[in-house]
Design goal:
Elements: E1 10-17, H1 24-45, E2 49-57, E3 69-75, H2 78-86, H3 100-104, E4 106-120, E5 128-135, H4 142-164, E6 168-179, E7 188-194, H5 212-215, E8 218-227
Antiparallel strand pairs: 1-3, 1-4, 2-3, 2-8, 4-6, 5-7, 5-8, 6-7
């Protein structure tokens, strides 16, 4: 389906939480519909969307603000992202009707993110990824936020990629929020991807200390997903 979603300048994240009491047969029907029909249809019916992929949470969290299923769609440029925002409401495309579990699942995330710097492989087909959503220190000045950005892209991303065996790390900025539990989506989203879907032994290498806005950052969520399709 074209260029991988997280290799694009923008991506749409749609996070679902299927009902915990959903029968296994209904979950299978939902996964089959999403993977074989809905992903491709969203890409086809939204101009400027180039690819879609679905992930499932690998470390379940008792947190209603975190989706257990995550669909990501690559968007080729800002014009396509703006056009998608403008098509919401009555102008949204009409998609194929899904199984009952599709409509019972809660939509907890729906945001567009813009790439703000990357290190590692330029293109890959990830088998797993980690996502960390955060805000800098609440009282950070513009100068401190610039220091935060420089440290995050130039120092922290490369340290995590090399130290934890990821193939790529990318920083994203929140570009548009449709849906996110209160108090809203964090400003930054770091995504670490690896082609190998198998987990690595635990352990974090020594990491460089950062500026104050980094050290006093507020992490909203830290999640790991395995690619489903």
């Amino acid at each position: 389906m074209g260029r991988q979603p997280l290799s694009c300048p923008f991506f749409l994240a749609v996070g679902l939480r299927p009902r915990p009491d959903e029968p296994e047969a209904e979950l299978r029907a939902l996964a089959d519909f999403y993977d074989t029909v809905h992903l491709a249809e969203v890409v086809r019916l939204n101009e400027g969307f180039v690819s879609g992929a679905r992930y499932e949470l690998t470390e379940p969290l008792d947190d209603d603000a975190v989706p257990s299923w995550l669909a990501v769609y690559g968007i080729e440029n800002a014009d396509a992202a703006r056009a998608f925002v403008a098509r919401q409401g009555e102008r949204r495309p009409v998609y194929t009707t899904g199984p009952p579990a599709f409509y019972r699942a809660a939509v907890v995330w729906r945001m567009i993110w813009e790439s703000a710097g990357s290190t590692g492989a330029g293109e890959l087909t990830p088998g797993k990824m980690a996502m960390i959503g955060m805000n800098p220190a609440a009282d950070a000045t513009e100068t401190e936020i610039a220091e935060f950005d420089d440290f995050y892209t130039g120092t922290h991303l490369p340290e995590i990629v090399s130290g934890l065996g990821y193939d790529r790390g990318t920083r994203f900025l929140l570009w548009h929020e449709f849906t996110h539990p209160a108090p809203g989506s964090p400003r930054y989203n770091a995504v670490y991807e690896a082609e190998d879907p198998e987990p690595r032994p635990p352990g974090v290498p020594p990491l460089s200390p950062g500026p104050r806005a980094w050290e006093e950052r507020q992490v909203r969520w830290r999640v790991k997903y395995r690619r489903a399709v």
